[in-house]
Design brief:
The protein is mainly α. The chain is built from 6 helices and no strands. 73% of the residues lie in helices and 0% in strands. The longest helix is centred in the first third of the chain and has 23 residues.
Length: 146
């Protein structure tokens, strides 16, 4: 008997964050309310056909009902995400994508060097390029020799 009571208390304590979120989150309540309203409208519209075949035919052919079903599913999905505490990461994902594209362009073996030079010129102005004049390696290459 104690095991059952412990199991129930354990499950109830695990649900506590979800219940608190449902109580305090206005957007969550709006999502659930909208999903319920959409489902009620669909049900009221479909109840005209009493059998399963006319009902299925109507769902398969009526674009308005399909749109309402889609809205209800979207609202329920948003509500579920909010209850579970999932947050959108679209800004982070966009930043990561753009960073990856920029790195791919800058370090492309074919055009990366020209791209980096162009970007450097645009950001820091044209630079005086140092070009190596190959010498004999003696250091003083003829300066001061008699």
């Amino acid at each position: 008997m104690a095991k059952t009571k412990d199991k129930v208390l354990d499950k109830a304590s695990g649900a506590r964050p979800y219940i608190e979120r449902a109580i305090n989150d206005e957007d969550l309540r709006d999502n659930v309310r909208n999903a319920f309203e959409s489902a009620r409208q669909i049900y009221n519209e479909l109840i005209g056909g009493r059998g399963a075949i006319p009902l299925a035919t109507r769902v398969a052919t009526d674009k308005d009902i399909q749109e309402r079903l889609k809205e209800a599913v979207d609202e329920l999905r948003q509500a579920a995400d909010r209850v579970q505490g999932k947050k959108e990461h679209s800004a982070r994902n966009t930043t990561l994508l753009m960073t990856g594209i920029a790195l791919g362009i800058l370090f492309n073996p074919v055009s990366g060097a020209q791209t980096r030079k162009w970007l450097s010129d645009k950001l820091f102005g044209p630079s005086d390029e140092f070009t190596y004049q190959g010498g004999t390696g003696g250091g003083n290459s003829g300066a001061g020799s008699s």
